[in-house]
Amino acid sequence: MALVLLVAACGERPQPDDAGFHNVVAAGRTGPEVVFDATVLADPQQVGDHERIQVRARTGETLEIDHNTSLAQPVPVHTGDHVVVAGQYYDDSGFGGVHCTHAHTSTGCPAPGFIELNGKYYE
Question: What pLDDT score does 44 carry?
Fold first, then answer.
């Protein structure tokens, strides 16, 4: 974790840590900041002010990205796209998700996150 903070402090975005992400999910821990590679499973659904994106992590987990579009621009993803996701992991009764994928933090979001698609950052 110290490495991620050091890299972020130097102005660079953290790189995916798929093994670290997998360990967080396997432990069922809610709250850690994660950065991981994923494939989009279905076109996003807009629900209120959140874009919900179903993904499969490179390590095999299926989860939902809960991207707040009142704080960040929508991500133009489609089924099959590769993304890098940075945000806060949560476990909701055995179903995982990631929120806080935006640069402008809100109540409950400890650090800024992002979604990268084709070299462009949506934050």
Answer: 96
In the prediction, which pLDDT does 107 show? 72
Q: DSSP readout, the chain? A: -HHHHHHHHTTPPPPP-HHHHHHHHHHT-SS-EEEEEEEE-S--EEETTEEEEEEEETTS-EEEEEEETTTSPPP---TT-EEEEEEEEEEETTEEEEE--SSS--TT--S--EEEETTEEE-
Report residue 51 as tokens. 């874009």
| pLDDT at residue 39, rounded to an integer | 98
Residue 110 CB burial class (10 angstroms; 0-12, 13-18, ≥19): exposed
Looking at domain 2-122, its CATH class is: mainly beta
User: Domain residue spans in the chain?
Assistant: 2-122
pLDDT digits (tens, 9 = 90+) for 88-97: 999 987 789 9
Tokens at residue 107, please?
Answer: 């109540």
